Amino acid sequence: MTATEASIPPLPPGEPDPSTADPHVLLRGYLDYYRDTLLRKIDGLSEEELRGSRLPSGWTPLQLVRHLTYVERRWLCWGFEAEKVPDPWGDRGGDGKWRVPDGVPVADIVAAFRAQCDRSREIVREARLDAHARLGGRFPTEEEAPSLAWILFHLLQEYARHVGHLDVARELADGATGE
């Protein structure tokens, strides 16, 4: 092993192969990487830690999972596909803060997240990156309709930011750091 090889850290689990050059494959791969990372970050947290907050803003890890479920739905189902989506902002309360309705089991929130990710993958699988969002859903005019590439990059930055937030929440909860 050369000195250069020894200084290159290994890839985190699930990251796309570094030889991949296809932007569609990279975007899908990194979105899946962050989706999986989100689930790894909440794995092992107690019900109390999932539903409680250690942060001044008051958001909880479970609220974050539900929020990202709705983010995917807003951008890909309602946005890109222009599907009729009941209550696209249902992750927020009247005060604009994320919420999880009382009594909803953690398993149901995680299952909804997984199902939405599956639906998002289905939408993106064969779509072209230069395709623009259909009109009639989130975007009423052509001028407002972003490309799929833009939407996927937006989702990627949402995940990167929020998984970083979850890093901090997890460290405060039980000291766990890293992937």
From TrEMBL:
Positions of region (Disordered): 1-22
Coiled coil (UniProt feature): none
Pfam family, one: MST
Name of the protein in question: Mini-circle protein
Record organism: Streptomyces daqingensis
